[in-house]
Amino acid sequence: MEALKARILAEGRDLGSGILKVDSFINHQVDVVLMKQCGEELARRFADVHVTKVLTVEISGIAPAIMTALALGVPVVYARKTKPITMPDLLYLATAPSHTKGQTVDLMISPEYLRKGDRVLIIDDFLASGQTILALVRLLRAAGAIVVGVGTVVEKTFEGGRDVLKDIGVPIESLAIIKAMKDGVITFAD
Amino acid sequence: MEALKARILAEGRDLGSGILKVDSFINHQVDVVLMKQCGEELARRFADVHVTKVLTVEISGIAPAIMTALALGVPVVYARKTKPITMPDLLYLATAPSHTKGQTVDLMISPEYLRKGDRVLIIDDFLASGQTILALVRLLRAAGAIVVGVGTVVEKTFEGGRDVLKDIGVPIESLAIIKAMKDGVITFAD
């Protein structure tokens, strides 16, 4: 997606250790117009897989997931990392290693909003190691839901997430695919 | 907003102690169509105050803030509760007592995205005690930004937030105003 890639080149910052800072338009400040375009493009790429629900993870996944769900006309569920008092004690919980926090995070979904037969598109801001998305897939399968695709805004191929997710056997789409970041230079795959 | 109030009556649950569970369409699962209507209505109510930025707090404020910002054509900033590695060490931080967590939370905003003269509309899912919003106002004033309004999806008048925020001197708008929850019965103010 050219508008996104241009924005990454203009405002993205390589902080080293594979960390891409895109806080000015995705992760702290959100450019809602660009994000809407991202959601529409992700929806277009998954138009044929009959999505009934979009699943993401708090926090930074929420914006792209909402825009994708809006374009698809389906609800969003966001997995929680801490249990709110409104969540029932019987819940789906998977643990994933956190790429940026250097520890593990819990991902929790209430069985109220994840049903057998749901056709779920997983959306997140980044595809990096793939571990968070893999944990979501485990939750979906535990619930008897069907994973129909994985879509992310930015993919960093050098962190191997696409290989990790290969066995799931669903289409994986990313709007900007970064193959290298070195000395502050961001290089896209295409 | 009638569609929202009807949905609260149909699916909202009074969990006692002033806690309203609306996880099926606002706080865990999001009805993006209803949320878009909420954002458009909030944008309409603040159409004349020349908003340049919408500010909210992760996590549940993000969805209504994004939809409001989309309708207004301005960016969103969401205050972080934990510091990501992409955030600079020099930052705005205010502490607020957490209504639902029974402790305090830190609210952090990078100075990169909050500038002197910004005309900021604060959007959140709930107006309850008003303490989180008050903390955001402190951050905005520290940055020299101008608070032009406060908009929330659901207000619980019995928690006193509107009085707490009165001295800010800006319009406060809520789309569903609940004056009482007792024995599972939710009563709106109008």
Task: Tell me what you see in this structure.
Two copies of one chain form a homodimer. Chain A is globular and about 45 Å long. Chain A has helices at 2-11, 23-27, 32-45, 62-72, 131-142, 161-165; strands spanning 13-14, 20-21, 29-30, 53-57, 76-79, 92-97, 104-109, 119-127, 146-156, 172-182, 185-188. In chain A, strands 5-4-8-9-10-11 form a six-stranded mixed β-sheet, sandwiched between helices. In chain A, strands 1-2 form a two-stranded antiparallel ribbon. Chain A is of the alpha/beta class and 190 residues long. In chain A, helix 3 packs across helix 4 (62-72). At the A-B interface, helix 2, strand 3, helix 3, helix 4 and strand 5 of A face helix 2, strand 3, helix 3, helix 4 and strand 5 of B. Strand 3 (29-30) of chain A pairs antiparallel with strand 5 of chain B.
